[in-house]
Amino acid sequence: MSGGVATRNDCVKLLLSPPSHLYSFLYNPVDQFSYLFKFLIIGTAGAGKTCILRRYTERKFIGNMPHTIGAEFGSKIISVDGTAVKIQIWDTAGQERFRSMARSYYHDAVGALLVYDITNRDSFNALSHWLSDVRQLAAPEVVVILVGNKLDLQDQDGQVTHWEANAFAQDNDLHFIETSALTGENVDESFLHCTRTILAKIKSGDLDPDRLGYGRQRNILGGIPGGDRPLPLTDTQPSVVTYHNDCSC
Is Transcription regulation among the key words of this record (predicted)? Predict the structure, then answer.
């Protein structure tokens, strides 16, 4: 900082290396979960990515959100077919000038929501670039869900039809869903489908957490130490953390 005033570089450093005390109040050591998955929300600026994150993690809609610089972070524990899973979600910047920075969050992510704005043709046209990035930089087994957001505006302002988005999804082997962060429609379902698909890959052996080496972190109370803190920004950060316990959650 200079003269007590935070510069843009200070903000960027804080986003990339947040001090641990910022997350200490989040950590609840009695949290019980079997897996920890790293998710991304990616796509062009203005597609509603941060609104989707807030709707999913905080159950509320905040309009007129400023564009994300670096990434926003949220987490949530859900139960999927009897298995407790903690999802750590990185909502990355969609502006082109921050794109190289956003890529630093991709490493080893095991799930991704590829978001476009139903009312913005340009956001749909840019999907191939975002998809190429995540498949190149995330975990090889990454599960990508195509999400058409702002479904509530489709009838009055829609520029991308369900048919053409579904065709893009089929051509690229993606599951497709349309959501509204405003009303909450299908927001939970998009994360649920992605999580369930990852669990199915683990069950079938297509994704092996033990092979990845992330199955040995646990504490006596049943959580993963630091489990509420964002996974570190390193080339070896885990995309899946397995925890075996006697809890029936």
Answer: no
Q: What is the pLDDT of residues 139-155, one digit of tens each?
A: 888 999 999 999 999 99
Q: How confident is the model at residue 7 (pLDDT cuts 50, 70, 90)?
A: low
- pLDDT, tens digit, for every residue of 219-233? 222 334 344 444 443
Residue 123's identity, in one-letter code, is S
Question: Among 91, 107, 114, 88, which residue's Cα sits nearest to residue 35?
Answer: 88
What are the residues facing 146 on neighbouring strands? 114, 176
pLDDT band at 65 (very low <50, low <70, confident <90, very high): low
Residues 206 and 238: their CA atoms lie apart, in Å, by 17
Rounded CA-CA distance 87/239 in Å is: 10
Q: Where are the alpha helices (DSSP H) in 59-126?
A: 99-103, 121-125
Write down the domain spans for the chain: 34-242
CA nearest 56: which of 74, 34, 81, 80?
74
Q: 34-242, what's its fold? A: Rossmann fold (3.40.50)
What sign results for the dihedral spanned by CA atoms 75, 235, 194, 46?
positive
Q: How far is CA 132 from the centre of its chain?
A: 16
Q: Name every residue whose Cβ is closer than 8 Å to that of residue 5 and which is 6 or more positions away in sequence.
A: none
